[in-house]
Amino acid sequence: MTGADTPAATAPEMVPVAVLDRFCPMHVIVGPSGHVRAGGPTLARLVAPTPLVGARFLELFELIRPRSVQSIAALRDLDGSRLRLRLRARPRYPLKGMIHVLPSDGTSGTGGGAILNLSFGISVADAVRDFELTGADFAATDLTTEMLYLIEAKSVAMEESRRLTHRLDTARRDAQHKSLTDTLTGLRNRRAFDAILAQALQAGTPFGLLHLDLDHFKQVNDTHGHAAGDLVLRVAAQRMLAAVRQDDVIARVGGDEFVLLLPGMDDTAALAAIADRLIGALREPVSDGIVQHRVSASIGGTLSRHHHPPDADAIMATADAALYAAKGDGRGGHALHAPDSPSAGGVLPSRDPGDQRGPDADTRWS
Amino acid sequence: MNGLINRAIDRFARDTYGDALWEEEIDRLGIDETAFEPLMPCDPSITTRIVTALAGRLARMPDELLEDLGTYLVSHPRSEAVRRLLRFGGVDFAEFLDSLEELPDRARLAMPDLDLPPIALYLHEGGVCRVELGLSATAGVRFGPVLVGVLRAMADDYGALVLLDYRGADARREIIEVRLLDEAFARGRAFDLGAGRAAG
Hints:
Number of helices of chain A: 12
Oligomer: heterodimer
Largest interface: A-B, 28 and 23 residues
Structural class of chain B: alpha+beta
Largest sheet of chain A: 7 strands, mixed
Number of helices of chain B: 9
Distance between the termini of chain A: 112 Å
Shape of chain B: globular
Order of helices and strands of chain A: HHEEHHEHEEEHHEHEHHEEHEEEHEE
Strand order of the largest sheet of chain B: 1-2-4-3
Distance between the termini of chain B: 24 Å
Order of helices and strands of chain B: HHHHHHHEEHEEH
Radius of gyration of chain B: 17 Å
Mean pLDDT of chain B: 88
Strand content of chain B: 15-25%
């Protein structure tokens, strides 16, 4: 077994304490009585002001794994085990450790005792801060300093990354705000529409403008939730796109409000026909697979040629007022601004309002 | 890595010469703010232009400016993180000096894109240490003068007395001579291993 003439076999019991102090500054040598005979300088700092040497090991440290032990005999039974311990004194730091039991016929006075080497494990960063440890408190071979470096370097990098994410997020919101597309429906947004309207006015070519509002949309949203509302808006957008010409522009300018710019349009009857087509398309229920959602549309419209000179605000205001008139007429219909019409004081209500209220020449909007 | 270098120059210039001068210079060069995004790549030629322009504006040599940048990085409170990360290199200045060779690896651990040139250390008689710094093709600036500034400030930080001599560059490396006169010349600044987390 232990051949006295083979240095390799006898070395462990011959290791001078000074070597352990240097290589394992958190080691502790426990004598057969359970009292600490010697210990590394870093471990001594941990238990200070209680002197490490002379104290009963189990009064300084509480064993948790593999099991709690109360006596030196029980501790000896853990020879070779990986240990989890805790400082008994506050802040009761968790520690990891290994134990090697010394043979009872040892000559160093520690025979029947044990050598333990301890470390902080994962809580090392907190421990270093709380015990004000420095690089000199760890062996040069110990990777603690490197680990602390890494923790700190990574948290600096992480903080920078967090800032970048924040800046990019702000930029994204900004870009979204400035973008020309309504992200929900894929239609143009108000910003895009304003630009297109300005362009059309600049070009001086005739166009029609419709202001469309979904009726009963709020009920869908309130009753069935935003997901249902979003679905209705997306389907409505597709149907509108299908109902107009390739060059016509549709923009979503509010929750359930849309405006359409129809280039080349200079005829009230043709404008009315498109409005009717849109209303018909939007009257069809929208199914989400379970519920049939029903909305309708009210539309107000005008032609650029009725404005002298054409002006964006005036055209929009006229279409808006016509929409208001259409709603006043009962939902699901349209009203067109038609100053050259002999009847109706400039408004041509649709002939078939969805809610079956008779045509009304009320022009309170004009 | 040039976003990070540019950011360092940006901080240095603002804290040393004021926002007005710096912003005027950047506007004049027409450099976009994304060039100063630390985690984003950036063309090294922009870094070169920034340094040249700033040096011109201040009527100083670019190398002098870069040395001040190195000192700033260690000693200014705004870049305390740099000082702390460097202090992990050793418990005293001699050990810190020894750790210089692993600086590029340490930097890479912190930020994988941070590609510092290789550093080699040669110890000579009488406490003289020669630091050789490979030339970086991708930095857009010379690191040598920056490292001189860093070493000067780190010596102060450790309380060591050193003489530094930037010997210039040849085709493949820059050379710095460090003469460690007194390891414990003055009381250095405290370094608490665990303070970074407490502060953060």
